[in-house]
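Hello again, I could really use a second opinion on something today. I've been staring at a protein lately and its backbone has me curious. You're getting the sequence in one-letter code plus the fold written as tokens. I'd be grateful if you could look everything over and explain what you see. No rush at all, and the record is pasted right below:
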Amino acid sequence: MKRFLLGSILLGFGTMSMVAQSGTKSPYSQYGLGILSDQSQGFNRGMSGLFQGLRSGNQVNMQNPASYSAVDSLSMIVDLGVSGQITNFKEGGASVNAKTANFEYITALFRVFPKFGVSIGLVPYTNVGYSYSTTQHIGTSSTTSTMSFEGKGGLRQVYLGLGYEFFKGFSLGANVSYFWGDYDRSITVLSSESYVNTLTKSYEADISSYKLDFGAQYQWQLSKRDLLTFGATFGLGHKVGADPTLSVMNIDTQTGVTSLSVDTVYNGLSIPMTIGGGIAYSRNKSLTIGADYQLMRWGAESFPVVNENTNDYELVNNYYKDRHKVTVGADWIPNPNPLARGFLKRIHYRIGASYATPYYKINGQDGPREMTVSAGFGIPLVNSWNNRSVLNVSFQWANQSAKNLVTENSFRVTIGLTFNERWFAKWKVD
């Protein structure tokens, strides 16, 4: 089993590095750094990503690293997840469906000292992936012009996290991440007339930087059965050391002559400061309900675009806007005893909802806001030597919409497998 888990970790890291950029076909991923991942995992995606006050020694809550200190001395936890989704895109009277699948994340957690947990993992940050075109007539003539839009890429992070309980009920933690990725977006203009030139604009960037995230949790024992957990997180905003470029290629279809111009904005990309807080209430280790709030200060960051007045490729300060997200969720297990009789009584039943404002603008107006509704199950995997591993299955409906823009409705299924092994137990032979 240990060899299997180690193999799963290595396979997960390698596989996700290859496919982490295939998680979307949304045309909205052509803006900013792409579609933001909520970085939730199998155990909390059924609660729409609730995380601030969640604290358990049986799950890896990488979004609040203070939770790592809850892991016990015998456990080695490995969590990995895959997802698939169907999305309907609707604009005006047109409608089209698209399917995607993704190996999403892999994380691990173990304890090195009393009250001191360590976690490692690989998770996505953004996804870029789209391909579509529009065709229109030029004036009243029969000549048509076709604009094709294509993009791919995304950002991801591999992290090392530490969490320590400084005194009873109070823990602090931090994730230090290597943050990397790229994006490649292009716009090609073709004409039905052979004498009209072909124009291609390509926006590209390679990113390699760091990411720092901090977390805190405080547990307040209200009574023997009732527990309240407060959580807070902070992410450092900074430049990511990327030099985005705009390449404009013009092909003379008559002579075959190609002209190319390249503009670069040095150190032109950044990630925002992130602040969040939340609370979770637990009753008799059976019912947990909670609420989160998160603010991403995108409005303080700039982004390179083409100035319509000067035609220069330059940083602008009014492209992004602050992103607010509110999440509520609940987890209920009828009988928290893993060895209790009755299989249905040992299943975790989860539900949640969230609302998030956009973090960018499209032609001067706000981008799409996002609403999600989720439900899920945590199914125990019990045998003679292990009663703590869990198969997590979640179902999520997500809606992205904005006035006079494309409306997206997605149905997503996520399967997460949490291996919880007693690696560090000392076996006694009589």
Observations:
- Residues 1-9, 15-21 have pLDDT under 50 and may be disordered.
- Residues 2-19 form the longest helix (18 residues).
